[in-house]
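User: Hey, quick favor. My workstation is busy. Could you predict this chain's structure for me?
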Amino acid sequence: MVEEKIGVVEHFFTKISVAAIKITDGELKVGDTIHVVGAHTDFKQKVDSMQIDLKPVQMVKPGDEVGIKVKDRVREHDIVYKVPAEE
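Assistant: No problem, here it is.
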């Protein structure tokens, strides 16, 4: 199973634990699993909700800038991958 790069972290809001992610490739839907990787970051989590301009969205595509609540700290320039669904 190969993970697909879908975006890059542009900002992390510490108090609310939300990552601002620029989607560069592919699509991401609520319910998908992401893998965030960087120099000090490496964790996977399911996407429970996403927002664009504080409005909930179900799916994002390249060019979108989306806020996703994350379970751990992320850093600018961390790479976000989409984990393929289990077969």
